[in-house]
Write a structure and sequence with these properties.
This protein is an all-alpha fold. The chain has 2 domains: 111 residues; 86 residues, no CATH class. Helices cover 81% and strands 0% of the residues. The protein is built from 6 helices and no strands. The longest helix is centred in the first third of the chain and has 36 residues.
Length: 197
């Protein structure tokens, strides 16, 4: 277990530096591409020709999405930078989460069956809360509930949210049942975890 933790620690250390370098490079590319797109750099210069031939084809999918959402094509480099930064943060967060779970498993396995039961119960509550958060964010960004990325969250959270919706009326267009469900899950988790000690 300690060797796995050492590997994860090294991977996190290396990946943090790699993500920082990639984000800095992406920021420089986004800045120069934006300067070329907004004609702050002469469109006839070698830099502009290089970016039109090399970088612009890579930006085309993002540019299409920006334009279809009503944005300006010149903003595609900044959206690319945001996507690269968010992807790096998500990757680092995932590895940190994985390391935390490995530590939790190590502590639970040395603590006996009761500790393992507490770990599994904690995982169940965490998955339900994540499902509620994914559902809320997918509705904010208008992701279809039938999308394979979010369908699981609807399946897990609907049995919790449906009874709450019958009791809690929406305030205008805002459904408060996910917020109430999230805090109720936290409260029930505290009660269950204290009972398992």
């Amino acid at each position: 277990m300690t060797s796995l933790l050492a590997v994860l620690d090294i991977a996190l250390w290396v990946l943090r530096r790699v993500v920082i370098v990639i984000v800095v490079i992406a920021a420089l590319i986004a800045l120069v591409d934006w300067l070329v797109r907004t004609r702050r750099v002469s469109p006839f210069s070698g830099v502009a020709r290089f970016f039109r031939n090399s970088v612009s084809p890579l930006m085309t999918p993002i540019e299409r999405r920006v334009v279809s959402a009503g944005g300006l094509p010149a903003n595609a480099p900044w959206w690319t930078l945001a996507a690269v930064t968010i992807a790096g943060i998500v990757l680092l967060s995932f590895l940190g989460f994985l390391r935390g779970q490995v530590v939790g498993i190590a502590v639970a396995s040395s603590g006996g069956p009761g500790a393992i039961v507490r770990l599994v119960v904690g995982w169940i509550f965490a998955i339900l809360q994540i499902a509620i958060l994914v559902r809320v964010f997918s509705s904010l960004f208008r992701v279809s509930p039938y999308s394979p990325w979010v369908r699981w969250s609807y399946r897990l959270s609907e049995p919790i949210l449906a009874p709450l919706r019958r009791v809690i009326p929406p305030i205008g267009m805002i459904d408060l049942s996910p917020l109430v469900a999230y805090f109720l899950l936290s409260l029930v988790e505290m009660v269950v975890m204290s009972a398992l000690r």
